[in-house]
Amino acid sequence: MTVRVLGPLDTGAEQLSPRERAILAALIVRLGSSVSPAELAEAYWGEDLPATWAQQIKTSIARIRRRLGHDAIATLGSAYAAGIEPDAIDAVRFERLVSTAGQHGLHDEHDRAIDAYTRALGLWRGAAYPSSPTGSRGSSRRCDWMRSGAAPRRSCSTRG
Predict the structure, then answer these.
(1) Is the Cβ–Cβ distance between 27 and 81 less than 8 Å?
(2) What is the third-level CATH fold of 18-85?
(3) What pLDDT is stored for residue 15 in this prediction?
(4) Residue 126 pLDDT > 90
(5) Would you state the pLDDT for residue 1?
């Protein structure tokens, strides 16, 4: 399974609802960490939670698992965590490719730097994390910042 968040959230599986996409995006942003149901609710509704938010979160988790496989979301006590391999997430691959490109540039390996920057920029299909109304703004800004720096660096590498 792959998860694409550098543009509209896409898992390659059956379409998720807006709430399910927001919950999955919130879990991906916190990859490697547990996220409480209240944090997931806030990622979708903000501070204006409906009275039934806890049940709606449970139902959404169950639906995501049905569509992506039970292992896509782990239960850790009363919290949840993404059970998705980091390399299956385009934002993680993007950050690694930009880092790799930078290392190649530092070692005067310009062709390799250009290739890594080109592959990193090719992962983008639109705004990062658009599926999450509130919970992913910091990650979105970080990815956008890295993206804005990658294109000029790719161009500079061609002049090396």
Answers:
(1) yes
(2) Arc Repressor Mutant, subunit A (1.10.10)
(3) 85
(4) no
(5) 81
